[in-house]
Design goal:
The protein is of the alpha/beta class. The chain contains 13 helices and 19 strands. A 12-stranded mixed sheet has the order 1-2-16-14-15-13-12-17-18-11-8-7. Strands 3, 4, 5, 6, 9, 10 and 19 form a 7-stranded antiparallel sheet that branches. β1 and β2 form a beta hairpin.
Length: 482
Amino acid sequence: MMSVVHRLTAGWLVDHLSFINQCGYEICDSFAYPGGVTLNTSVTSTGGCYAASTFAATSSSRDGLIPSPGDATETEGRTTKMIYVFREEFFDVSKPHIAAAPEQQLWQGCPEVSLTEIKANSNREEHQEGTKSGVRDSVPSARKKRKRKCVFNQGELDALEYHSKVRKLIWEGTLHLVQEGLKSGFLHRTTTELSCRKDVVPGHIGCGLAELCEMAKQFPAVNESDHQAVHVLDDETSIPEQDLLSCVTENSSNSAKIVVLMGQKYLVPPKSSFLLSDISCLQPLLNYKKKYDVIVIDPPWENKSVKRSNRYSHLSSWQIKQIPVPALAAPNCLVVTWVTNRQKHLHFVKDELYPHWSVKTLAEWHWVKITRAGEFVLPLDSLHKKPYEVLVLGRVQGDMKETLRKSEDVLPIPEHKLIVSVPCSLHSHKPPLTAVLAEFIKPDVECLELFARNLQSGWTSWGNEVLKFQHIDYFTLLQNEN
């Protein structure tokens, strides 16, 4: 697949942006209005891969302005095609968020470091951060940060011990993949910032989806017997909020669609379906009557910083256990769960959650985040934040005959694989797993993502922000043809 740039024994170097744009979005007119104005509602796969900087955006409108994605454009008896791609600047990670010391840079090779030395390095980092804080923060704040000195709590000790076991594997595997990326020109040791506009995304994007799901709890209950289980998209663009929130929305066509929700436009890729709802309103997904061979889960894990910031909702371990994975999973279903670097969550998934769902843990993989120059985005031995995240892979256990039949001609899940990529700067926009999982599942299987914030062709996605990164303003006009 195009999104896998290199595949080595260690894992995969993945191009997240290419995955989003590998087919492109070609918007063609479908409604003709008096005066030659066309409302563009159908988005067709272009069949080619584009980088967002390949073409200059042009416009066919008479005043010379580039139309917003999906807006009406004037035509004079000609078909208008507009190609949109995901905005490239969201992947412009040219420098590390925190630069590593020279001896800790990827190119120096992985030094043999004991757990004691990692603790000492973390203590130095803690002291440096406290000193920096003293410059920009209040004196009491700086004093509070320096007060900790060399004391680690049990969670930090567990995290350090885990890190000491995986750091060499991550360092060496990433180095091999980065070297291949540099040879092929996908990565560049010297990078310059893109000339694309760097403005932040307007505040309205993605806002209101979670709130809308919360409001939907107050809607009158629908009668299951006479209520449709799925809303199939046609050429209409506006969907009543209650319809969108009470059943699965499906785009079964070969063309993408634009839907309008609360005045905002969202792109729905071809052959995809989604349910926008709160976790307490999952019944429409069960009513969809599908069993999934792959289920990817990205839970909003509870932690202190999330509680303090109040930026997004989080779920307790008990709430996550209530997700009806057994009712959604096909026999031998591959379950993949994203886990933060807190050992508490990793142990919960392996020791409680998966057994509760009758899932057998098979492997732990790591997503490693690098810059366009091939450096870790954070020092590998940083105490507070690591440049990697964990994925726990397992399979649903059930009827042995059915499991054996389904596992025929499929490679077993290997342990300790790396997915290395330049991360999206948008919060919690994880890299796609479609390409890297392809060799471990049969073709044309049913795939489901839970707690999704974007859609994928061939997948069903659920979450209370499932359309967030499909907002039209995350895309840019690539080419306009008449």
